[in-house]
Amino acid sequence: MQKHIIITGASRGIGFETTKYLADKNVTVTAVARSGKKLSLLEEYNSASIHTLSLDITTKDASEIIYRHLKEHNLTIDGMIHNAGLLINKPFSELTDLDWDNQFRVNVLAPVSLTRNLLPMFNSGSHILNISSMGGFQGSDKFPGLSAYSATKGALSILTECLATELAEFNISSNCLCLGAVQTEMLNQAFPGFKAPVKPVQMAEYIANFCLNGHTFYNGKILPVALSNPS
Ligand SMILES: NC(=O)c1ccc[n+]([C@@H]2O[C@H](COP(=O)([O-])OP(=O)(O)OC[C@H]3O[C@@H](n4cnc5c(N)ncnc54)[C@H](OP(=O)(O)O)[C@@H]3O)[C@@H](O)[C@H]2O)c1
Question: What is the pTM of this model?
Fold first, then answer.
């Protein structure tokens, strides 16, 4: 039977390319992001395999919208890639409470509530894949301006270990990939002018295949995917 994977943050960058790669592999994908205009490019690419949902993952009804979509299309979940991310680049002394709140809402609290609320829709043998960053990997170099972002990614990393334990009884695996630099809009925000050695399409292939097969070999693991640090 055709697998079905939900991916957030699919309107550009790594999520956009991962959606296309999965669809090329004959996986049904529900692609989530706020920008409906950009998501429509994915439907044009492969309307048979790609469903799009234009929504903000931090809103109260996000899980409910996805849940209704799954019911309507008779879909269950084989994989969920929490890829959507926000990066606020500001010195620690200038970060406001609202900045911290927004960082945690997008990068941690939204994955938490989507996972919890959609839990009944996950199949036995399914895989939750959290997309973290080298900034959220313990012992990695840290960079000025990225304290809030890195702290959220650290939280997402540890959440991964907790989910692997808590969801073992349902035979749901959970892993976390801590990415190094990939040439996207977000990288430009973090390190303006930096040329990354990896293109989104290359990282997409790795992430897609890891989501499909990685949980045969790993569970509850926080894995760096980086050539060096930050790159
Ligand atoms: N690029 C890198 O070097 C790098 C390194 C380490 C980790 N990562 C991680 O990899 C993931 C993808 O990064 P990227 O570089 O591809 O980033 P990107 O180009 O900035 O894309 C971010 C995606 O997240 C979506 N998004 C943001 N807030 C959202 C919200 N509230 N609701 C729904 N969707 C939302 C955006 O879509 P809309 O604006 O349309 O909603 C967009 O599709 C992120 O988690 C990032 O932290 C990236």
Answer: 0.98
What dotted CATH number matches 4-225?
Answer: 3.40.50.720
**H and E: helices and strands count for the chain:** 8, 7
pLDDT digits (tens, 9 = 90+) for 46-74: 999 999 999 999 999 999 999 999 999 99
143 close to 133: Cβ distance less than 8 angstroms: no
Q: 169 C-alpha vs ligand 1 centroid, how far in Å? A: 31
| Beta bridge pairs of residue 33 | 54
Domain ranges of the chain: 4-225
Counting ligand 1 atoms within 8 A of each CB, the residue from 6, 7, 14, 101 with the most, and so the one to mutate, is 14
Q: Name the closest-CA residue to atom 19, ligand 1.
A: 13
**Ligand 1: which of 83, 103, 141, 188 to mutate, most ligand atoms within 8 Å of CB?**
83
Query: pLDDT for 85-95, tens place per residue?
Result: 999 999 999 99
